[in-house]
Amino acid sequence: MKVIVGGIIEKDGKYLLVQEAKKKCYKKWNFPAGHLDIGETLKQGAIREIKEETGCDVELTGVCYIANRIQENEIFMMVVFTTKLLKEDIKFDEEEILDVKWFEYDEITSKIQEDLRGDYVRKAVMNNKNNIIAPIEIVDVLEK
After folding, report:
1. Do residues 35 and 110 make contact, with C-beta atoms less than 8 angstroms apart?
2. How much of the chain is helix, strand and coil, in % rounded to 5?
3. What's the rounded Cα separation, in Å, for the pair 84 and 46?
4. Judging by beta carbons within 10 Å of its beta carbon (0-12, 13-18, 19+), is residue 32 exposed, middle or buried?
5. Which of 24, 73, 95, 103 is most buried, by the most CB atoms less than 10 A from its CB?
6. Does residue 71 surpass a pLDDT of 90?
7. Residue 49 forms part of a structural domain
8. Which pLDDT belongs to residue 86?
């Protein structure tokens, strides 16, 4: 199973996106996100991925997007959190990320599909902007 976790970072009406360096999505803009590691909770993974891809420290505040992809031999799931920016210190691994940039809402929603990693980027940002957000308390860790 592949689980992707990430977050929408908003500040002063702008949203922080990362430009991917990976070959399969080269130069595509995405919110900071990545694969959940074995032994991590959803929240821990999202905070780690955001830090690794942007250098920013955040607090998770809610969930604005959940999706899965139907695949023949694999399960793929994505959980996108809303965040509160605690510390902005833009740093990133240039082998994974080409650039990190703040975008106005209209810049993201008007971007052509080829510029974004997927339409889910636009949908997650729109949900955040329109306050379609589930409370963070719905995210829990199952006991063993």
Report:
1. no
2. 25, 40, 35
3. 13
4. buried
5. 103
6. no
7. yes
8. 98
Phi, psi of 54 (to 5 degrees): -130, -20
Per-residue pLDDT tens over the stretch 5-53: 999 999 999 999 999 999 999 999 999 999 999 999 999 999 999 999 9
What pLDDT does 90 receive? Answer: 97
- Residue for token digits 């969930």? 63
Structural domain contains residue 143: no
Number of domains in the chain: 1
Which CATH number fits the domain that encloses residue 29?
3.90.79.10
Determine the residue type at 33: A
Q: φ and ψ at 120, to 5 degrees?
A: -60, -25
- Token pair 């080409």 is at which residue? 98
Asked whether the predicted pLDDT for residue 60 surpasses 80, the reply is yes
Q: Scan for tokens 């975008």, then name that residue.
A: 103
